[in-house]
Amino acid sequence: xxxxxxxxxxxxxxxxxxxxASHRLMLRAGMIKQSAAGIYSWLPLGFKVLKKIENIVxxxxxxxxxxxxxxxxxxxxxxxxESGRYDDYGEEMLRITDRHxxxxxxxxxxxxxxxxxxxxxxxxxxxxxxxxxxxQWKFRDEIRPRFGVMRGRExxxxxxxxxxxxxxxxxxAYNRHLVSYLRSYERMGxxxxxxxxxxxxxxxxxxxxxLVLAETGESEVFYDSEVTDLTFGDRExxxxxxxxxxxxxxxxTSRYARTDETHEEALFNEVPEERRRTAxxxxxxxxxxxxxxxxxxxxxxxxxxxQERVPVHMGSHGIGVSRLLGAIIEASHDDKGIIWPEGVxxxxxxxxxxxxxxxxxxxxCEALYKSLTALGLDPLYDDRKERAGGKFATMDLIGLxxxxxxxxxxxxxxxxxxxxxxxxxxxxxxxxxAVQKVAEIYAGI
Amino acid sequence: xxxxxxxxxxxxxxxxxxxxASHRLMLRAGMIKQSAAGIYSWLPLGFKVLKKIENIVxxxxxxxxxxxxxxxxxxxxxxxxESGRYDDYGEEMLRITDRHxxxxxxxxxxxxxxxxxxxxxxxxxxxxxxxxxxxQWKFRDEIRPRFGVMRGRExxxxxxxxxxxxxxxxxxAYNRHLVSYLRSYERMGxxxxxxxxxxxxxxxxxxxxxLVLAETGESEVFYDSEVTDLTFGDRExxxxxxxxxxxxxxxxTSRYARTDETHEEALFNEVPEERRRTAxxxxxxxxxxxxxxxxxxxxxxxxxxxQERVPVHMGSHGIGVSRLLGAIIEASHDDKGIIWPEGVxxxxxxxxxxxxxxxxxxxxCEALYKSLTALGLDPLYDDRKERAGGKFATMDLIGLxxxxxxxxxxxxxxxxxxxxxxxxxxxxxxxxxAVQKVAEIYAGI
Lengths: 445, 445
Description:
The structure is a homodimer.
Chain A: H1 21-28, E1 32-36, E2 39-42, H2 44-63, E3 67-68, E4 74-76, H3 77-83, H4 85-88, E5 94-97, E6 103-106, H5 111-121, E7 130-139, E8 154-164, H6 167-187, E9 192-196, E10 206-213, E11 219-224, H7 242-253, E12 257-259, H8 265-268, E13 276-291, H9 293-297, E14 301-303, E15 309-311, E16 313-320, H10 321-331, E17 333-334, E18 337-338, E19 349-353, H11 359-374, E20 379-382, H12 388-398, E21 402-406, H13 408-412, E22 416-420, E23 426-429, H14 431-442
Catalytic activity (chains A, B): tRNA(Pro) + L-proline + ATP = L-prolyl-tRNA(Pro) + AMP + diphosphate
Main location (chains A, B): cytoplasm
Keywords (chains A, B): Aminoacyl-tRNA synthetase, ATP-binding, Cytoplasm, Ligase, Nucleotide-binding, Protein biosynthesis
């Protein structure tokens, strides 16, 4: 993309309403614009990152054997009356009446709707196991929306639901989700720690939240420092292998790691003192096994191999897709702006032309742009007639991990400059080598 | 995908509520499930086609230089009061009150919101031309939703908005949209004819609707039969070339082609009688140039090169993404089911194992599955223990354009059968050649 043809409305001023770094930076970098309290438009740069995160979630869910579909944003109130949650949910549920006076709502989650779909079509244990998921806009009418996309009212979420014959099978589905979530977050450059959580209104005894450590997190967290040494890495996983998935669960959840909701001081004190940590965390996902809570209430049953009709065992599993943008920025920024991890960066590399209008500099930039694009990379070329300082400030603000700087002086020596946003380190190298190096960085991402 | 692990709830019975073929077939093929009047869940097969269509729209819009972003589903009523449309829109607008008593609405379209975004950031003619678009769920509270996704209440639409300094520039944007729409529809296997249309509540003198001819269309259309001979084909187009885009507009709109709303009998009678056609059509898109209607009402201005502040010239341009599934099926089906065009088919090819459990047949199917997948193709392998008749009926119903049939008898002669869904023609060939042929069919699609 050539910046002169893009829509990147960066702000010089820091918006007064933004209290935390991610909110400030998303506004300043022209990623979002508030259109109503807690409701945002995703400007082109923000939309691009949102799609990258969504794609990672899709890929990892499908790798785990989970099947994508899509439920609507608006739901009929009837299903929620059947589960008993219509009255329980309180004012956070946005209730709507249509022109015929029917009670509707903007879905805050989808246990009822997916259970209705399941019971409409599935009747035999032979059709199990089954895990369906979707990524869709949801609405929670927060009384005080704040922190930008971190606590918006209209938000984008992946929610998946497993249907299994037995508790054992459902716990394997639980473990598959845990593994696929670990992989997803790591691909986004995040360390998200699974912590034992509270069931809340969805219910369930087995539930873990995934938390990203950050000063601005809404939850206080308590953990054994060994949990931050764990990484999933690029190990091979067979999602059909029950023991293997269970092994990952044990590896990642056996040490103490809890939020303030489930924290037990006595247990925490059993962790050696030098490894006890207290910090703040941002919740970016949660997995639940809740057994037959919804299947019994809504009569979602299958016939088992003894010809008995039994309610299915279910769980639900969520990733906060839009919220993740905020979490990633909270975990990765500096005074100058955002520092995108390579896995989610909106553009792979920025090209800064120090002397737009200079034939040689323009030609070198065009050649770089074409070479990078030909390799399947997605560069952002700042081809505006601006001074270098302004161009650097914009690139630093929007946080592309790599920048190639092209100027007449370097070109005389046959070199351009490749700069790492995170370390600030630069090296001079030929344009060809710069392209090759960027391609190597992104190989396999 | 192996069918034994997929969720494809095909129905044997024809649902009574469905009046037209596309609605019946989408229900029977397990693509959608109604969750409330005019509101559908997209089951896995339907979701897959929806995404294919969405991707074509994204690719063609970006090829035309239009910039993707995303506006929210819910909007504040204030902006609609500013444009004067809040009261005009009538009962089709779903009005919502949030917990603080604020008036909101579920966006049926986005002229107001995009104009607000534009005026918040853009102040100079130097930032023009600019075309922003998004693909988002919308809601129109139809009094009698029907025909499945063709006339739903919650629907998925691409809407794009151009901002230009002059009428001339805005008409070039109009032409770019016309060209990109022609390309998009053709990639979906559709002939959509641009017809002069009526401005309706959006307003505007320059507007064309794109109509797909089908008996079940909601509009009566009148046209010169020469328009159905026109195809865009794979010609090269430079979207910056004003004359070239204007030439395409003239080529595709100079002959008589109108809906009942704009039909003029006297003009129609000037078409030679043997070329006059009357038929029915399904609207799958519309483009508008409406000048300064919204920019004046909402004060969206830029400073021009004479330092004068002038309202921008705008247009809006929509493609009915979810409705297109219905339109494609109306245009392409037979008694047995759907016939997907290759560009939007949910899976590229079906593999039918005639004797599941037979070692040789199973191994041959697995090998085919792996070879196709390795080439980047997406096969659906029916690996269920069902009789052949049921497997063929399912494949015909869900409409994959190509099917490879594998059975012990053929394998003895070293052959499998490749069948074209549309013509019903089959040929016997080696598994390797079958894979090669399928790969050739999809090369470049």
